[in-house]
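Input:
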Amino acid sequence: MQNGILTVRALTEQLRKNLEGRFPFVWVRGEVSNLSRPASGHLYFSLKDAEAQLQCVWFRGQQGQAFDPLTGEVFDSSRPSPLDMLRNGAEMLCAGRITVYPARGQYQLLVEMAQPAGEGLLAQTFEARKRQLAAAGYFAQARKRPLPWDPQRVALLTSSTGAAIHDFMRLARNRGSGAQIRLFAVPVQGEEAAPAMVRALETVDRQGWAEVVVLIRGGGSLEDLWAYNEECLATAVFSSVTPVLAGIGHEVDVTLTDLTADMRAATPSHAAQLLWPDRNELRQRLDEALLSLQRVAGQWLAHKERAWEYLERARRTALGLERLAVREAGLEMARHRLDAAVRHLLAGHEHALQKSLLALEACDPLAPLRRGYALVYGAHGRLVRSVTETESGSRIDVRLHDGHVAAVVEDREQLTARGRNRKGGKQ
Amino acid sequence: MSTSRKNLFEKRMARLQEIVAALESGNLPLEEGMALYREGAECSRFCRQQLDKARHELSLWQDGAEQAFKLDDDQSEEGRNV
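Output:
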């Protein structure tokens, strides 16, 4: 390739060109050691494994990159600070290019991006699985069901000792109209977590008791939350008959369980907020309903009152008629009494009349005829009072009490005063 | 199973609103209207009591049986993240 003797610098320069050309961008995995960060802000450390080590430099200007240098993907949220991720002993994935530092005669990695080693693999798995489940329709909005409003029976899947259940219960305290919460105590991380939650979900469905099932867990790393990205759990959530609410980790943490659930809460506290309405809000609604009832009942009563008044007036009028009837009855009675009185009066008069008639009868000039007296009428119908008023041969009319006798005078004799009482004249 | 057991509070609230609507439409006989008003007042009283005594009851489902469960309040402090 060349002859003659090279200077160190020339050789180093050739090595640099070779290395840089050969490894323009690499991912390296290893454990961090000898980490130092001088005032310049650059980070110096070694990545090592059991057999070898690699010097690394992460210049300050490269530490805040906002996009993935490999894929060009722009990060949504700011990345964690490198100092938070880098610590001696941490297993890291570092990306960058290999170069040579001539002053020390060392090759080194110029770091452009770093992330915890486990997370990188998990993140890849997560993305792959997410695409797969999305294709299977797990996250479709159309299949998401609304949560029951102010549920009374809630199944809760979480650890019985974590902060999550405390946060959840604390927020729940002032919400809703009172619910029964059935806790299914499950591990929320580790190998056992996902299968245990799958079994609990199956139990919840089998019981058919809960109106909604809630999966909550406090925040943690992607690894900590990994159980919620297991396909078996996502599938169990997907096929759950009971609606599912998931509140896993912090707001930035999104798991496949969150994405599959009918509703996603940002945190366990938020889950309680989504589940139950504020109790004061319920009070307000109740107050409003009661006020409406009183207002409407008042209006209704006023309406009835008007109708009643109308009826009452009619009734009073009817009462007037009644009174008239009573008066009529009174009048009738009075008439009867008057009638009776008149009759009585008349009867009295009749009696008197009868007496008068009898008295009158006694005065009848013809009455003595019954006792055998007779009246004698002469010619021209004149009453004959003396024998001297008659002549022999003249016709007289003798009136007895029951009729007349026509007679002719044969003889006449005037009596003396003495014999007037012993001897009557011929009749 | 117990899905027919609806939220009693919500049921009574709904009934209360139904009664308001019925009274609002008017034309009810006096007896019926008074009965409705009484029922509405009763619903409201029930709901208020329900809110006043509202508590969430926590139980633990374990080994196929329901058991009483009480959270230890000391554990609610920060620092436990699972």
